[in-house]
Amino acid sequence: MEEKNLESIMGLIMFGGNAKSDAMEAIAAAKEGNIKLADQKIEDAKASLVEAHRAQTGLLTQEAQGDHMTVTLLTVHAQDHLMTSIAFTDLAKELVDVYRRIEEK
């Protein structure tokens, strides 16, 4: 596997993992009543997802230009990691909103 592809794949895994961790911390903060921290953690998760998407876009652009790469288990894992992190962050946003409504009452 080419080094540039490996860097992109590792970026997907790293930034996806960061997003999921931040989303989990957002839920924990909201559960404790710290909505301000929860909102910040959601923003941090979204920023990590932007970085992961940049890595993914690089790979997709390369593919679209005809520079095909061999798909390995690591590549599949990276994509799975990103998609799970996106879904988890979306769910965390919803949970933080639920806790926000509880705090406002």
What is the ordering of alpha helices and beta strands? HHH
Structural class: mainly alpha
| Separation of the first and last Cα atoms | 55 Å
Strand content is under 5%
Query: Percent helix among the residues?
Result: over 70%
Question: How do you describe this structure in short?
Answer:
The chain is an all-alpha fold and 105 residues long.
Describe the structure.
With 105 residues, the protein is mostly helical. It has 3 helices and no strands.
Topology, element by element:
Elements: H1 3-31, H2 35-64, H3 73-104
Helix pairs in contact: 1-2, 1-3, 2-3
Keywords: Phosphotransferase system, Sugar transport, Transferase, Transport
Protein name: PTS lactose/cellobiose transporter subunit IIA
Modified residues (Phosphohistidine): 77
